[in-house]
Design a protein that fits this description.
This protein is mainly beta. The chain has ten helices and 56 strands. The protein folds into six domains: about 140 residues, Cathepsin B, Chain A; about 280 residues, Cathepsin B, Chain A, CATH 3.90.70; about 100 residues, Immunoglobulin-like (Sandwich); about 100 residues, Immunoglobulin-like (Sandwich), CATH 2.60.40.10; about 170 residues, Coagulation Factor XIII, Chain A, domain 1, CATH 2.70.50; about 70 residues, Immunoglobulin-like (Sandwich), CATH 2.60.40. The strands form twelve sheets. Strands 1, 2, 3, 4, 5, 10, 11, 12, 13, 14 and 15 form an eleven-stranded antiparallel β-sheet that branches. Keywords: Hydrolase, Protease, Signal, Thiol protease. One of its GO terms (molecular function) is cysteine-type peptidase activity.
Length: about 900
């Protein structure tokens, strides 16, 4: 039960410290009281609703969520004085632990809060921040002044006029009306959700109310089902923007009228979300298996070519900008273009939302894409502006992998003039407008003429200004396929280009050709005249589009926070990755510290698959590293580098000297935990499991120095505890690990034992002197009666117009791969009253195979082969000795072989 404090407690005097320290619950409520005093309803009762546990320092909290009155707002207070004091706030609504964990975007952002605070504790000078000192010292603290009020509240045509209700959309019905349904071989149907990227983009498109209808077509392979998804936009009816209610609540009701949206309204909204989802190659999925996801970087090409948005629209990465430039871009986008589709990546996965307002001290207003629930002002930077911490800079600082869509406005709006402009600047002196004809001639056509269906294809074209006036504006490149009259916009120059009268200028364009069909194209150049695009009469040349195999390409989706440990103390290093290539990858992956391999193992990643690689550093090379700072890199295949952005340097490892070395007779650590229900894999760290089925936990362990003894595996609902909530949530096993060894143990708990919403799996053992439990090694997971914040089944929607696809099995979210962990059952005997079972000797080779594998066993028995998703694919009788088994018929991927009490693993190429 969480503690609550009286207002008498809040009246205790507080002093402004000069040394940074953790903020305790009482102090957090005092800060919240100070923050709310200057606002309306300032005297309403405060209630602590959530304390985020610190996964590195037991006993402290990373941040506090404090609600005011009954739906009268909330504030999120940092748990450390060296960061900005207030992380998020709102004058309406509420926020609690359930909301944070159930909404993907909120969850991802708050994981970032925790990661940034942990980074600050390890890397920032030990002194209080200016905002903490100011808030602690004043009882009349004022909310930061709004520079740009939330745009989703106001009309685009006149920002002084409020809409009847703010634009606030979600991912469930009616937004997923046209999203596909998956049915498995048991007959169960799973309705997919629209996806946070599609909902975020659609929210901004609704604000612009553009276009009347997309043009052209798009197609892609839906990775989860391997189905081909295609749509011809030219054959679809136009959008009726007046029949798209601006605010729709979680029950599918129009917020303005309080009535269920009509079928016509649902159809218009659903088609928009479908069109965007297909356009950005949405990997549709049910909410209970992780939801629908895609990359924001897929959006610019289709928004320009199919939805007729500004040709300069691009997805930019924060790692390529300074802090000042990034925030200047945010302010310019909100001022001159509109709301921002913003994305980030953390250890909890990717998250996407809409930024639509800006306040002093770099607070932004966020719509989480959850039907207006918990919208608030928040900071996407925990650290205050300035200082030497390098937030937003390169590797070595905490870098969050933030992205946003820039120059997001309709293509026809070449010279926007929003009203009002919060910081108006004088307009440049008008230049004479050239005549619309005879202005430019093409001097040199496109070079080269051969291009591929890839991003960033460079094209150079030279033009001459043959008019009698200078030109200073944009150029646009488009392509017309031979045999067609339809023009596809390829790209627009990112900046205005000056071409003097009589001068020649070489134009360089970088085009995304991934969605262009193979064939021959005629290229055209357009320029701005009288506020409109005017196409040059001459052709800019011809090009041929073809494809070439990229192969597997593994990239990191986020840079790593700094990893800190001590000499000889192995750590788990988690890296979120994606195979962005067009071929599956199966092979060795190695992590290096300044070039020295410190971890590695076999990994299989399908094309377009996301995963978190959890590296076990229990290796001889890691043990030999001296104190110092190391750069972390990852190689795969034949020496290719995993990159983030354009850099192979993914993060830093700091190894410190031990002040008082402790000699231990053995050690064991928890690397990862995989969860299974009803015989199926349902996820790992941060996953949500069902409250309606028993849970089997497979815990992967590793040792740096070897271990032989008893280990207690337990599940607790409190971070930092060293025992399970009950005896039924504990399992004691005798295990044996060689030096640098690894393997797993399993145990099953009844569904009736999991009565809470959040739990941690961890281990504890005794090294002969004391009990040892590393709280920060614990693997967190969540329990829900509905598996997600969407509880509606595929059979209970008001209407459904999406396609249905049958699959053999359902995959659950992004993969979590323990790199360097062997699939060997470590249990030698159990000490919890269960009859001791001796492990039968068995082995498998080779571990990477294309045709056959050999299983050697000491006695006859049965072998069951399972896919990585937990589905049984074969059952085989074994004789004593060697057994050769054909695997050529299996699809490429990872497989597990259960022989007696051992589980072996192999990768099918």
């Amino acid at each position: 039960m969480k503690k609550h404090f009286s207002f008498l407690t809040l009246l205790v005097g507080m002093s402004v410290t000069t040394v940074a320290a953790p903020i305790q619950p009482q102090k957090a409520k005092q800060l919240a009281e100070n923050f709310f005093k200057g606002s309306k309803n300032g005297g309403a009762k405060l209630k602590m609703s959530y304390q985020a546990p610190d996964e590195t320092k037991s006993g402290n909290s990373l941040y506090y969520v404090i609600n005011r009155g009954d739906n009268q707002g909330f504030v999120v207070v940092s748990g450390d004085t060296r960061t900005r004091a207030i992380l998020a706030y709102s004058d309406k609504g509420y926020l609690n632990e359930e909301a944070i964990h159930e909404n993907p975007s909120i969850h991802g952002m708050f994981i970032e809060f925790a990661e940034q605070i942990e980074w600050a504790q390890q890397n920032i000078a030990d002194k209080p921040s200016e905002s903490y000192k100011l808030l602690a010292a004043r009882g009349d603290f004022k909310e930061p002044r709004h520079l740009i009020e939330p745009l989703l509240v106001v009309e685009k045509s006149n920002r002084n006029v409020n809409r009847p209700t703010p634009i606030s959309w979600g991912q469930d019905w009616p937004f997923n009306l046209y999203s596909p349904t998956i049915s498995d071989n048991t007959g169960r149907r799973y309705k997919t959700v629209s996806g946070c990227v599609a909902t975020g983009i659609a929210t901004v498109v609704r604000w612009h109310a553009w276009p009347a209808r997309p043009k052209g077509s798009t197609s892609y392979t839906w990775r989860r089902t391997n189905s081909r998804m295609a749509i011809n936009y030219d054959q679809q009816p136009a959008y009726d923007w007046t029949n798209m209610p601006e605010g729709v609540d979680g029950r599918g009701n129009d917020r303005r009228t309080g009535q269920r949206v009509t079928e016509v309204q649902a159809d218009n909204i659903g088609r928009l979300l479908r069109d965007i989802g297909y356009a950005v190659r949405m990997n549709f999925g049910p909410a209970q298996t992780g939801g629908s996801g895609t990359l924001l970087s897929y959006a610019p090409a289709t928004l320009v070519n199919n939805f007729s948005y500004d040709g300069r629209l691009q997805c930019i990465m924060r790692s390529n900008f300074s802090d000042a430039a990034w925030w200047a871009g945010i302010q310019d986008e909100l001022t001159n273009y509109g709301p921002i589709v913003y994305a980030g990546y953390s250890n909890g996965g990717g998250h996407c939302f809409v930024v639509d307002g800006l306040a002093e001290n770099r607070y932004v207003h966020v719509d989480w894409g959850w039907n207006y629930s918990s919208n608030c002002w928040t900071s996407i930077d925990v650290l205050e502006p300035g200082g030497e911490h390098g937030i937003g800079g390169g590797i070595g600082a905490f870098n969050r992998g933030h992205q946003m869509l820039r120059y997001f406005r309709p293509d026809g709006d070449v010279n926007p003039n929003p009203n009002p402009n919060p910081e108006p600047k004088p307009e440049p002196k008008p230049q004479p407008t050239p005549d619309t004809k005879g202005v430019f001639s093409v001097v040199k056509t496109v070079s080269p003429a051969q291009f591929y269906q890839e991003v960033n294809q460079r094209m150079t074209i030279s033009v001459k200004n043959i008019s009698n006036v200078a030109y200073n504006s944009y150029f646009k490149l488009s392509a017309v396929k031979q045999g067609s009259s339809y023009a596809t916009n390829l790209t627009t120059s990112p900046n205005k280009i000056y071409v003097g009268s009589g001068s020649t200028k070489e134009l360089s364009f970088y085009a995304d050709l991934r969605n262009l069909e193979k064939g021959n194209y005629d290229l055209r150049i357009s320029y701005v005249s009288n506020g409109k695009w005017t196409e040059m009469e001459e052709s800019a040349g011809r090009m041929t589009i073809s494809s070439r195999s990229m192969g597997a390409k593994v990239v990191a989706t986020s840079a790593l926070p700094t990893v800190t440990t001590f000499v000889g103390e192995a750590v788990r290093i988690e890296v979120p990755v994606m195979n962005t290539g067009d071929a599956d990858f199966s092979g060795n992956v190695e992590m290096r510290a300044n070039g020295t391999v410190i971890a590695g193992g076999e990994v299989a990643l399908s094309a377009s698959e996301r995963a978190t690689l959890a590296f076990s550093t229990n290796t001889r090379n890691f043990q030999s590293l001296k104190p110092g700072t190391y750069t972390l890199t990852i190689s795969y295949g034949n020496g290719q580098s995993v990159t983030y952005g354009n850099s192979a340097n993914l993060g830093s490892l700091i190894i410190k000297s031990k002040e008082n070395p402790v000699i231990s007779t053995g050690d064991v650590r928890l690397n990862s935990a995989f969860f299974y229900q009803n015989g199926r894999y349902v996820g790992s760290k941060y996953s949500t499991i069902s409250k309606n089925a028993d849970l089997t936990v497979r815990a992967y362990l590793y040792s740096s120095n070897g271990f032989d003894g008893s280990v207690k595996l337990f599940i607790t609902d409190s971070y930092g505890k060293t025992a399970g909530n009950s005896a039924a949530l504990e399992s004691v096993n005798n295990i044996k690990l060689d030096k640098y060894g690894s393997g797993y143990v399993e145990f099953t708990v009844k569904q009736s034992e999991l009565t809470g919403s959040r739990y941690y799996v961890n281990i504890i053992y005794n090294d002969g002197k004391k009990d040892i439990c590393k709280s920060w090694d614990g693997v967190a997971f969540y329990v829900s009666a509905y598996n997600s914040y969407y509880g509606t089944s595929a059979n209970n929607y008001p209407s459904d117009k999406g396609i249905e696809v049958k699959v053999k099995d359902i995959t659950y979210g992004d993969a979590y791969i323990a790199v360097g962990a062997n699939d060997e059952n470590l249990v030698v005997g159990e000490t919890n009253g269960i009859e001791t079972v001796a492990v039968q000797s068995a082995s498998l080779y080779p571990t990477v195979a294309s045709e056959t594998i050999t299983i050697a066993t000491a006695e006859a028995g049965m072998a069951n082969i399972f896919s990585a998703a937990g589905a049984k694919v074969a059952e085989i009788s074994l004789k004593e000795g060697n057994n050769t088994i054909a695997v050529s018929q299996f699809t490429p991927g990872v497989y597990f072989v259960k022989v007696a009490n051992k589980t072996l693993k192999f990768v099918k190429k």
